[in-house]
Design brief:
Blueprint: H1 5-37, H2 40-66, H3 80-107, H4 118-150, H5 154-160, H6 164-193, H7 197-226, H8 232-244, E1 248-260, E2 263-272, H9 278-293, E3 298-305, E4 313-314, H10 322-325, H11 329-332, E5 341-342
Parallel strand pairs: 2-3
Antiparallel strand pairs: 1-2, 4-5
Helix pairs in contact: 1-2, 1-4, 1-6, 2-3, 2-6, 2-7, 3-7, 4-5, 4-6, 6-7
Amino acid sequence: MPSSESQDRPESLLTVVIAFGANLLVAIAKTVASLLSGSASMVAEAAHSWADTGNEVFLLVAERRGGRKRDTAHPLGYGRETYIWSMFAAFGLFTAGAIVSIYHGISELGETGPAEDVLLNYVVLAVSFCLEGTSFLQAYRQAHGAATKRKVPVLRHVLQSSNPTLRAVFAEDAAALVGLVVAFLGVLLHQITGLAVFDAVGSILIGVLLGVVAIVLIDRNRRFLLGESTSPELEDAVLVELLKREQIERVTYLHLEFVGPSRVYLVAAIDLVGNEDESHVAVRLREVERSLEDSQYIEEAVLTLSLPDDASLHPTDTDVPEVVRDGTVEDVASGGAGALRAD
């Protein structure tokens, strides 16, 4: 099965690089605007953008370190390190973004006085929206292409994907766009009413938004670190691939577990064609294992022999999407537990 993993990783890297550049420019602009205007919402937005900028560094490290080949010390590869560094990024978003924004908003609740330098705030917010929008469109384009091939909604694919960098950039940029709208409303209502409480509430709402996003990202990375099972469609695809091999008569057990972005650990119980002696069977099992590991997305395959009374597994759907048949796990990766039909 050919794989496009070599194409998926550069695309994820491009998504992170674009997000880093956009967030850095936006963070500088928001910081200047917050210092000149004293707006609580702008301070929250500045903290948000600096947190996002730092997080992209973690995601770049995740892409680099998680892509290393397996060795004797790490027989299942380094893919899970991607989730570790992505977890650091999520904690950074929570601490440097959410907590700072909420704390500053609460401290500004008692402030009074008219809004100052609102024009600068509006200009910075507009420019920031364009830059954040550009970054979000890149993440959305990557996610939409994969979701379309899987025939699932984009948000579902993002939440279930084994690619934590795509999920982090998509979530952070989406939160940034919503945060910009909240900041705009906070500044506008402060200007119209002369009540600084609207600006402070905007800061608190931005912090709550960032906290929710951070918790979702932390939970998804935690699940993959614990050993997230794959989706029914991917299990179907692998089962179909196994049964297509002339050496395999039937499959009675199949376990797939993500060990990194687009990388799975495969364990299966199979019944080989024919009735050869034990030594020949062992050689044939090793040959099938090695052929499976030639796939770009199978980190390691472990095969055992089925018992005569074990029930055979059959795909729940033989109409496997083309992208699954092609082995593009980045496009089919999901977190839901799989299910195979046995009889």
